[in-house]
Predict the structure of Beta-xylanase.
Amino acid sequence: MVHAIPRARRAATVLLTVGLMAVGLVSVFAGTAAAATTLGAAAAQSGRYFGAAVAAGKLGDSTYSTILRREFNSITPENEMKWDATEPNRNSFNYTNGDRIAGQASSQGARLRGHALLWHQQQPGWAQSLSGSTLRSAMINHVTQVATHYRGQVYAWDVVNEAFADGSGGGRRDSNLQRTGNDWIEAAFRAARSADPNAKLCYNDYNTDGVNAKSTGIYNMVADFKNRGVPIDCVGFQSHLSNSVPGDYQANLARFANLGVDVQITELDISGSNQAAVYGNVTRACLAVSRCTGITVWGIRDSDSWRTGENPLLFDNSGNKKAAYTAVLDALNSAGPEDPEDPEDPGTGGSGNVRSTGAGRCLDVPNASTSNGTQLQVYDCHTNANQLWTYTSSKQLTVYGNKCLGASGRGTTNGTAVVIWDCDGDSNQQWNLNSNGTVTNVQSGLCLDIPATANATRVRLWACSGSANQQWSGPTG
Ligand code: 9MR
């Protein structure tokens, strides 16, 4: 996000540009939004998520589930999708508890972070006793089966967890998985991509929060994967911290992001008397990196934490908000609206446009023809398909910032047919941006259906099938 023009002036310039461009449209900016009052809503202002690790066995605890539903818009199963849980006997799968977590995420409209397909810990006994090519094929089968089962439900998978060694060498951890051959990680990522092409595929590890030998070893692996076309989309930084955060935390996130992957804080918990301040610092570091797409805390109440007695979470044992909670919420709220001109910037979702809710996601039309009537596919900027979009008051589709479809100079002139993929990925919907400023379904002529119409309500876009057809304002230019 390097720009020569200060943010305030850029915003003013954009407002003016939009004002000139969108004569007759409802005002694009709704003004400064009130501060959000939950972690998820506050993170969503910048297109990010705020998640928690969740245990299926606690969903029946009403204090726990009330906080979960109220505060979090991403869920990671703490243990339920690990190898020992999902494949207790070879090629015999048990998804009961994993499905409970997935169902909870779906029911509250939260993202699901899958965790973890391959890890040297929490393997079933049968896998621990295998080696060589037998283990390799069992590993890959596990990845394929589990990723296939959750296909379409998972936003991001921790495909491989904790495969690097601590210490100064920056090399791989010795494990039964590693002993099947150094290419086991890329084999796992390729299998996961084949099984669920729309999930973001992450490498996840701990003690990687600053620039150190271990994080640099992982950095080199990610760079190598990107160079050779091995599928990898994100790197998770667990961030189990004790009273401080490395001074180069943000710089470390940024160097990975600059490799062309998303970064996520995946298992955050912080002990010590400095807890609230450190939580604030970590949150601000993520917000400062445009490809830091979200933060997950590793549990809800202190009593839910794996770090018994350290009280490292945002809610006390009774479910009360701690000072650390306020520090995080304030940091998220202070981020303010993003830079509307920055294609890496996801948008606030509150400014009168339809935007992707994923951080760093903007609509892009790569290599598109610009002639009127040409059919285009609209992906996000990372060439991913299924996205959630936020609907707000003035009913526009934006490419990014305030560049409406058809007025952006990105190959989307008025009358150009575009394809907008639905959130479930089950059908590629073609939409036509009409010269009168509406968007209609190419195949059926139906317009977009917006089932929830409150400003900033998060919705999915799909073809209208009944009377609830919603017309969208398009660009005038
Ligand atoms: O929080 C998890 C705890 O309930 C399990 O007993 C433990 C088993 O090793 O795993 C914990 O979660 C770990 C996560 O899966 C990977 N990173 C470290 C986490 C804390 O140990």
